[in-house]
Amino acid sequence: MSHFVYANGKMHAEEVPLERIAAEFGTPVYVYSSASLTENFLSYANACRANGRGEQGALVCYSVKSNSNLAVLSLLGKLGSGFDIVSGGELERVIAAGGNPHKVIFSGVGKTRDEMRLALAYDILCFNVESIPELHRLNDVAGSVGKRARVSLRVNPDVDPKTHPYISTGLKENKFGIAFEDALDTYRVATSLPHLDVTGIDCHIGSQLLDDAPLLEALDKVIELADRLHVAGIDLHHLDIGGGIGITYDDEKPVAVGDYLSRLFARIDGWRKEKHGGTPITVMFEPGRSIVGNAGVLVTEVQYLKHGASKNFAVVDAAMNDLMRPAMYEAWHGVLPVTQREASARVYDVVGPVCESGDWLARERALAVEPGDLLAIMSAGAYGMTMASNYNTRGRAAEVLVNGEQFRLIRRRETPSELFSLENV
Ligand code: LLP
Fold first, then answer.
1. Residues 329 and 245 in one domain
2. Of 14, 19, 116, 299, which shows the fewest CB atoms inside 10 Å?
3. 425 belongs to a structural domain
4. What average pLDDT score do residues 223-227 get?
5. Of 292, 320, 347, which residue constitutes the final position of a domain?
6. Structure confidence at residue 15 as a pLDDT band (50, 70, 90)
7. Segment 177-188 mean pLDDT
8. What's the CA-to-centroid distance between 30 and ligand 1, angstroms?
């Protein structure tokens, strides 16, 4: 259920009017709902439990890149979440938020030596390795610090996730993962290296998937590969199917997490029973968007209205640097008035002040607005703030976390002097 709803014509985040948050912290401001984050995380954790997986049998590793605010990480960590990271910086965030490093998995095609050393020092759960050179580098680094690194190989199942080309990652032509036909040989290399422990297999085929069929197809391929590895004497402790479940931005109807997980666990249980005498395998997930996407909105104030012959523009104080998704992927986000007005609507493009024609947040929306009104850009919790930049020397938006009737600033707005404080004349 949504925790951004109208009461008396005013949109609230849980019990708090967005107007109040904007008055206190200014705009643009990202507002997140604790209840929504909690429910979304529990949709995974509870489905794992309902399918007979306790602490050891399944691990949900929230994908930090989707929203890395410390308060968000802390909340999820307290609910028992692990973390999927893609940089040393994200690892430092997880630690600063009180997250458990032994529940961290490290993904990404370009891990540096320093990042590997940092992750080994924290004794993370697993490195998701994407190439043979990376295996050799990790082996060297682990040896040099007298440790062993647990590794999983990210395989590329060549499944079409049927999503936006920029966010599909499991096809052959993508830079991600190890080609299926090379997987067995790559596992042989991994097991031959003295400072590595091969513990798992992983894949991630793309993001904003509405149907779980491609995920289950990827699972079948991964299972088949795990059996070939078993025959070759390589047994795995875990299987990580990645993230990717989509959310409703407009009228999309994504598969329910509980349904997807039931189907997935049914296949895995059947497989373990049939081929492995019922020996369990730990199952891991890396969800981002489905946990945080609909738990956040971006609140912005209308600055000017420009009515033209062919188009009307509502110029707002949020821009592409705050929410990159429309400019980058032509992504659609709902735009709703924070206070509903009894007036006739006009059709507007909602644009920011950045000097680029690509700086738009929404196109052709019927809105009854006046300068000074607040708008909520919906479904902005995932890949919003984490992809924000300081283009045009714009300080990044403030972030606020709501919990019931309470709300608190979890990141204050950057000031201009902070933006150039690292520079020298
Ligand atoms: N695991 C790996 C290895 C990933 O690359 C990703 C996302 C995830 C997990 C989390 O996927 P999710 O559950 O959020 O779909 N910026 C784009 C999305 C990029 C996704 C990148 N990888 C957007 O705004 O739509």
1. no
2. 19
3. no
4. 97
5. 292
6. very high
7. 96
8. 20
Cis omega before residue 28 (within 30°)? Answer: yes
Largest CA distance in the chain: 72
Average pLDDT, the chain: 96
Total structural domains within the chain? 2
Ligand 1 contact, 242 CB (< 6 A): yes
Separation of CA 128 and ligand 1 centre (Å): 15
**At which of 235, 257, 292 does a domain end?**
292
Say if ligand 1 is within 6 A of residue 161 CB: no
Is 424 contained in some domain?
no
What tens digit of pLDDT does each residue of 25-74 get? 999 999 999 999 999 999 999 999 999 998 889 999 999 999 999 999 99
Pocket of ligand 1 contains residue 396 by CB under 6 Å: no
Nearest atom within ligand 1 for CA of residue 209:
15
Note whether 16 and 39 are same-domain residues: no
Pair (186, 255) in one structural domain: yes
**Tell me, what's the pLDDT at 175?**
76
Q: Which domain holds residue 352?
A: 4-32+293-419
Q: Are residues 223 and 351 in the same domain?
A: no
